[in-house]
Amino acid sequence: MATDPSRSGRSPHRARRMRSAEPYFYLAPGIAIVALVMLVPLVVGVSFSFQNYVIFRPASRGWSGLENYVELWTDRTFWHALGNTVKWTFWSVLFQIGLGLGLALILDKPFWGRPVFQSLVFLPWAVPTFLSGLNWQWLFNPIVSPLPSWLAFVGILDAPRNILSDPDLALYGPITAMIWWGVPFFAITLLAALRSVPSDLYEAASIDGASAWQSFRYVTVPFLLPMMTITILLRTVWVANSPELIFVMTEGGPAGMSQTLPNYVFTSAYSSMNFGYASALASVLMVMLVIYSILLLWVRGRLGQ
Amino acid sequence: MKTIQGMSIAAAAALAAWGGMANAQTLRVVEVLTTNERTGLMEQIASEFEAAHEGVDVELVSVPWDSAFEQILTMTMSGQQIDVLEMPERWISTLAVNDLLTDLGPWLDEWQGADQMTEATMDFARIYDDTAYFLPYGYFVRAMYYNRDLLSQAGYDAPPETWEEFAEISRAVSEIEGKYGYCLRGSTGGFVGWWLAVSGMTGAESWFNEDGTSVFASPEAIEGIQMMLDLYEDGAAPRDSVNWGFNEQVSGFYSGTCAFMDQDPDALIQVRERLGDDEFATAPVPLGPPGKISPPIGMFGWSVPASSENPDLAKDFIGRLMEPEANLEWAKFIGIVPAVEIPEDDEYFNDPVYAGFFEELDSDQYNLVPWPAYLPELGEFFDVIAVETSQAALLGQMSAEELGQTWDEFLTEAQQRWMAENQ
Prior knowledge:
The structure holds 2 protein chains of 2 kinds.
Chain A: H1 5-8, H2 12-48, E1 51-52, E2 62-63, H3 67-73, H4 76-108, H5 114-126, H6 129-139, H7 147-153, H8 172-195, H9 199-207, H10 212-241, H11 244-249, H12 261-270, H13 275-304
Antiparallel strand pairs in A: 1-2
Helix pairs in contact in A: 2-13, 4-8, 4-10, 5-8, 6-8, 8-10, 9-10, 10-13, 12-13
Chain B: E1 2-5, H1 9-19, E2 26-31, H2 36-52, E3 57-62, H3 68-77, E4 84-88, H4 92-97, H5 105-110, H6 119-124, E5 135-141, E6 143-147, H7 148-153, H8 163-173, E7 180-182, H9 191-202, H10 219-233, H11 246-254, E8 258-263, H12 267-274, E9 280-283, E10 296-303, H13 311-321, H14 324-334, E11 337-338, H15 355-362, E12 369-370, H16 378-394, H17 400-421
Parallel strand pairs in B: 1-3, 2-3, 2-4, 7-8, 10-12
Antiparallel strand pairs in B: 4-10, 5-10, 5-11, 6-8, 6-9
Helix pairs in contact in B: 9-10, 10-17, 11-12, 16-17
């Protein structure tokens, strides 16, 4: 809205300032809501981590400085859970993106019955994680499921036993479930990205005598890269933060061997009732994921040039 | 009347926000153990209650058991209206210490129905701090289920009376290809089995001695722990059972994979669907050298949270739920021992399949003890520490002595702190 400065008695300078501030007025309600539902709880949550806050000792609640973080530094379970979180996130995302890309490339080419396959591929994504966790838990149970016998038959296991009860293998149960559940997400997003690649580029490449691999390497990949970076970023944060499959399938066991950080946060908060310690764990996880996100975006910026 | 399936904390919160706008005469009843049969009975009681109280609307909210404690804690701490709350005795200490529960004592003293309750019920109502924070509606007692076929295949025709016999039969059954003796429960809730072994060997009637030290580090207790570890080590329990929870243990039993399981009467419902009454039975838990044992008794009951907007109506409603006929039927649906006296002519509870449970209730050799629910650390011990350390011991990462000592340290500290605070 332009105003005539001579009549309103305002300096033109001020009017210009008002005009440049205008977008922020429109944004203000949105920002206020985000601040209210995101930032306030975040600040409160982080502030818990500097407090001695055990639910069943209301009397001893108070500020304790870095005490929770010092305790965390010497906590073996924390370090173990940290390593598991990295393992869990890395393998889940790696296989999700590999299989998702494969599916996307297959579904990108027309073939008989493609619409049916396409909907089948996206099915796991529609299953609630809790439900798929329970399904996989039973699938790994040798009493009711043939899966352990098959694994033993092909030589992966020495006997048809439950990998969820094996301290060295337990984490790979939930990882399998996570991969199964998460592949469609990558398949969908990458398929959408593939379809946006202009076909004349492929034509140009084949006229120039590019092999199939070369046109994949020099046409498809550069087009997919921005989309891939952003999906990897999103999925990594989601997977790293997602406790439910592990919670349902192993409860972090046996003997805490498949505990990841989000699960440990949950255990500390609701079994040990130590909200202060749980908040410290959660804050560490958050800081790590923020650093990771910044790194990935920086890498993407470098690749973009 | 409305029935709402609570699905998440967010849903519960949204519900509360919406419920807060309902009229003042809404009675919100929160259930944490839901079965289809029980819901029918609950709805019937609720509609009768609505008919008898003009302008009252009973609203049933079901919170899924797996996350019930977290949700209830969140709801009550944020002051959301709950008038009647179903809960186990374990929750009382955490909720009561934060002043989230009301004292039912004055009402219980006037209440007509108190005469029909068993003596135990009136005692257990005051389990925490000698204050009636809840009224139990039924009990879980632990007995030994055994598979008759597997026992006879191994050459035995009667269930074991002592732990020694139990170990012997377990090993004999596991000689059969693909079969095992004991459905061990290594995951959540598994501490019950360890306690039975410790209590059997020590004869202890409590987790603690007079001075607040625990019984778990004594040589006899370690012997009990070692007995369990040996059974697992020797293959008398399935290797997977280190991670078994309730469902895996029960399915291991009814599928005929293993011959014994220590379980409450609520497991009968699932077992009976798949095994005939002639294929399995229940016996009292085995005894050790001292000739007496203290199996745990667990309970569920009704409480009135401090966030209730109609506490008097809530008490009326609890009174209605606890009427003998309703309570007996209620107990059948969940598979628990009722809170009221059992009539002579009740066919259901006088069935032989209940023999193991009632023998424990009647015999002097079995002294049923509740968990030390007054300890705020009980949940952490039971769900985290006991599970992680016992699994570590089963996997050979810890010895029986270390396991007993770890439990002893944690529990002794908790008990002595509690004693110091409550002198």
